[in-house]
Amino acid sequence: MLTYTIRRLVLSVPTLLFIALIIFLLLQLAPGDPMAQVPLTVPPEVKQKMREALGLGQPIHVQFWKWLVQMFWIEPQVFIDWLTNKSALFGWLPDTNLYTACGPTVEGPCDLRVISWQTRSPVMDIVVQRLPQTLWVVGMAYVVGILIAIPIGIYSAYRQYSVFDQAGTFITMIGFSIPPFFTGPLLIVIFSVQLGWFPFIYDTTHVVDDWDSFVFQLQQMLMPVMVLALQTTAQISRFMRASMLDNLNQDYVRTARAKGLSEAIVVMIHVLRNSMIPVVTVIALGVPAIFGGAIITEVVFSVNGIGQLLITALFANDLPMVLTITFMFAVLIVLFNLIADILYGLLDPRIRYD
């Protein structure tokens, strides 16, 4: 298993480089101009100098190589420096943490980092600031969705064609079919406008320091979490039900029952472990997908997270920001593919990667 993991990690490097190249070329072909938002009163020669300052006058291969060096060489060193709290990168800014010292007035190492065209700040600094909000909403929604979906799928399969199974099938099909851009405004109209129970704008500046602030945090998280968890529950519960039904009719289940094992042990240990193998794939690959769904949800509920940051960067034609965030999504896909394959071997001893 260790050899397989190392081999997959090594193969993921050219895969991610190829993905980064494709994303970069697609963004180069996309319409739009980062200078479009500059006032018309700015002289053309000034706009040209601004283009050159952003690196737009350089050849495409030079721009891509510069981004690779910044992303895979400079940014990791900045991150290590932030973790170890040592002196600044390359000896600049002595006795100062480079990660927090970078700004629009600082010369030197900041020029080497991936800089947003829109804010003129390091892209990773902005991503790190937005990431906790996304993880709070997306992470909580995914955990809630999984915890609800797996028991529903198990019981629906065990009580096939019962009232619970039919009701669960109907509800999950509705949840899987309705997109977040519809369920989000619908919940806002019902629970915020009509009933006034929950705030419809997510306050990212809210600080939890007592019980009342904790309750408010739960209230403002409830609706975006419900929107994202609805689709997660619908998808995973259907896969869980189908996988359980496939294993409940296997010979080993009849053998276990013939040996006198209790129904709870047969279902919850033998059947469940084998049924989790295909479900693990859905859960692992669903993590990047739920981040994609969070893009719409964050915009609907004004969650100041990664999704809203990506939408803002797209409208502003901020190529470094869009390229970095989409590449992060690609890393998540490759990483969780590997995690799913490793979990296969842990759940099923018959699977070997020799």
TrEMBL record:
It is found in: Cell membrane. Residues 131-340 form the ABC transmembrane type-1 domain. InterPro entries: BPD_transp_1_N, MetI-like, MetI-like_sf. CDD domains: TM_PBP2. Keywords: Cell membrane, Membrane, Transmembrane, Transmembrane helix, Transport. Pfam families: BPD_transp_1, BPD_transp_1_N. The chain crosses the membrane at residues 135-158, 170-194, 214-234, 277-301, 321-347. It is a multi-pass membrane protein. The keyword Transport applies. GO terms for cellular component: plasma membrane. SUPFAM superfamilies: MetI-like. One of its GO terms (biological process) is transmembrane transport. Belongs to the binding-protein-dependent transport system permease family. PANTHER family: INNER MEMBRANE ABC TRANSPORTER (PTHR30465), OPPB IN A BINDING PROTEIN-DEPENDENT TRANSPORT SYSTEM (PTHR30465:SF97). This is ABC transporter permease. It comes from Aquicoccus porphyridii.
